[in-house]
């Protein structure tokens, strides 16, 4: 696998992609190139983590969007002709990947959970399909092989001090027809759900918006964050969209996921595949969340949650 | 007012997929539907049309996709184009985008193209951005709020990014991919469905299009994803819940 | 012969399924428990043109055929038999009565708002002493100048407490026998007409049922529906339409019972196996599925005959008789399959069981249907 490119908006994502990138690179013996914005830390860190080359994206003016890098990156990749290009599957990354793939006239495997070289050297990727009901194994037939990989799929690459590599800077591209008018940071409360150790998730079983307080209390006792299913954010709009867990929402990987009144639609369950312990409180014993859970309480969340809060406090105290 | 194209895919309703023996997927009793994300696209297209605009629904697929056309037309579109052929049944994102681009370029005048963020079956999230590239127009993806500027000629879109929201402006012609939260798709009323039967539908056959390129993404296998865990069920008495909490502690999930 | 719904019918049925799943199923247990009329759902039903499917567009309806209306009632009833029934009696009887018998003015004034779902219709025939024996009714309408004056008491009036336009039957000439009864359209709030308290029923609890009392209730002459003395014939034709709706409601209940029984029997494990593997259970389900199919075909056939402008009175009765009895027979089995869980509140089959019973009683008891059918075949 001669030549691997990694493109990410954020340092931590680039460090994660260096894990599979390094493995592929070791197998192929080519150069490993990391492309990140110049604001994302010391290039030496990427080199220590396995990069042979770091290409820094120069600072864009406020009005320009990340996608304005598309023509320049397409030219760079064409010139370097790497065997594979891996991108972090962020919102911007997924769009950029698809558009790059179109320009490079190659295939792209989206949202890959695994990737590994087969016996013949073909890169084989696994991804979810049919709302998470199916696992699809795919291979790309064009060159380069392109893949997007969701955040936290791989651990950050180990660093080896003393490695050497080159650093270069790509000058900002000219403005394109898109103009960024404003950027709005998401609510502080919603920052950390994807990285939270404990997530209390509310679903349709919640009867009123005010009852979110009950879930908040439980989350507070557990020291966790609050999340929700799609109907709560999309239809009822009781919580912001960036707290919605699922295939097209946030993918969480907590130590503990606790669903309150969550029925367990496949699209939602897909968002918590990586949770270590899945627990559910639901009054419907047939709710599909139970077969996907480790521990379950069949009962009314309004009855169960106060007792649960008390028992957790008691267990902590004792 | 804008000429809008809304792309939709006629997909297997995943609720009907059964797990067969040995983890294989059983598609023998499936029903089809308009991909959920594309319902948002159709709805948003209808919303953006305003007075005097026009919405064309467009799909590419196997012959069975013809069944989705009336459904799409009952969701606010004025006319439909369908590129239907047995050879179009299972296209990869490269091919899908290429066929859509060809049909649009040669047959459908447009200012704005609206796609779902991904399809309900493969969810590759590629067709929209690839289509924009094929047509050489700007692309704004993962849009949660869309406005056609009052004076026309451009859109203002709020798109989701990891840190929050980016508000961007783009001139016509432009393609957007929309998130499910952008709107609540209608459940078509009875009259919507009856009227759909009277709207014009153009079928584009494979022979009418230039030869299609090779697929660039190959599916090697498709198997049921395993989600099952061994769930231990507890009751609701304080004693039951204390045992539940003890189990959480044993698992190291609470300190 | 073609056993196939049209593409539109398939789509409309699917849309109603989605509507019912989204708006009706989640509240069905609650509105049953509280005997509540879900006004918010009827507002949405009106917006989707579900309250006047077979009524022509020029009279506020959707302009589809009767079978399409029947499909909607079936799917709605699968989630909530009460809601399905309210649509059925509103469209199948109240709207159809005005459509088939009303003057142009009456259609403009009453049918359009009903078919648009802005106003709810009610059918006021049964009296405390006159159920199947309609001729035993005692409510009278006496012409006094330019108005009829109604006196009497009606009972078991569906949509009594919630209706807007009441189709009321009364004797204008008792001596004329079958040709002595007439029908009047009486808007809510007409002095002299009052609805009693909502009855506490075993099932169908969110459908609102009450007495209707008429005390010197003056109804303008122009509110006479059809000709004087034609009431009974109109009522019977109304029943023909309504009965196909009750058959569809029964089919919906039965389908729901089958869905629940299949799901539960595959999940419930006893003696180490899902109970669906026991022949005692699987045969119950086989019988249920078979009767469901038969009931559905009888129902669609009756609706299809109506759409073909053929006589469908006998077939409507057959469909209603078979489907309602099948619904009752098999909801008993569905509860049995669920065991103790099925006997408790919260199990859908418990509600289906209670709701099924009324289908054998209203719009003509099973016995009355047998009278109609035997009268037809022994002629």
The CATH topology assignment of the largest domain in chain A is: Rossmann fold
Order of helices and strands of chain A: EHEHEHEHEEEEEEEEHEHEHEEH
- What's the total helix number of chain B? 6
The largest β sheet of chain B comes out as: 9 strands, mixed
Q: Please state how the strands of the largest beta sheet of chain B are arranged side by side.
A: 11-10-9-12-8-1-6-7-13
Which CATH top level class of the largest domain in chain A fits? Answer: Alpha Beta
Tally of distinct domains of chain B: 1
The fraction of residues assigned to DSSP E strands of chain B is 25-35%
Put the structure in a nutshell.
The complex is a heterotrimer of chains A (318), B (255) and C (379). Chain A has eight helices and 16 strands. Chain A is of the alpha/beta class.
Structure description:
Chain A has eight helices and 16 strands. By secondary structure, chain A is α/β, with parallel strands linked by helices. Chain A folds into two domains: 167 residues, HUPs (Rossmann fold); 130 residues, TPP-binding domain (Rossmann fold, 3-Layer(aba) Sandwich). In chain A, helix 3 packs across helix 4 and helix 5 packs parallel to helix 8. The longest helix of chain A is centred in the first third of the chain and has 18 residues. The N and C termini of chain A lie far apart (57 Å). Chain B has a single domain, classed as 3-Layer(aba) Sandwich (Rossmann fold), CATH 3.40.50. Chain B has a nine-stranded mixed beta sheet with strand order 11-10-9-12-8-1-6-7-13, with helices on both faces. In chain B, strands 2-5 form a two-stranded antiparallel sheet. Chain B has a two-stranded antiparallel sheet with strand order 3-4. In chain B, a hairpin with a 2-residue loop joins strand 10 and strand 11. Chain B is globular and about 70 Å long. The longest helix of chain C has 37 residues. Chain C is globular. The chains are: A alpha/beta (318), B alpha/beta (255), C alpha+beta (379). At the B-C interface, helix 2 and helix 5 of B face helix 1 of C.
